[in-house]
């Protein structure tokens, strides 16, 4: 469905995942049994809803084609929109880039250009 999906993460948790070579998920992911991702059209609202005012975050872009197609499911969530959920650990080899997700002067996250 998309070339890239996105994960917002606290910098420290992402650094641990990079050291381990895989991301097993944030506490909410572990509780739900899958890793939550967003598309480019969804990620800004995800940040506003779930990370409002949080600093020291990173945005990771994940190559969809690098994921196990049996483990990646597009499931209805917010307002019935399909969101990508990964039912497996995220291998770091699938990550296209990671960059800072700073807060702007108005307190919202500054994404810049995303695909």
UniProtKB/TrEMBL annotation:
Parts of the chain that traverse the membrane: none
Database matches in Gene3D superfamilies: Protein of unknown function DUF952
Signal sequence region: none
Pfam families recorded: DUF952
Top-level taxon: Bacteria
InterPro entries noted in UniProt: DUF952
Entry-linked PANTHER family: BLR1139 PROTEIN, DUF952 DOMAIN-CONTAINING PROTEIN
Protein name as catalogued: DUF952 domain-containing protein
Native source organism of the sequence: Ancylobacter oerskovii
Upper taxonomic lineage: Bacteria, Pseudomonadati, Pseudomonadota, Alphaproteobacteria, Hyphomicrobiales
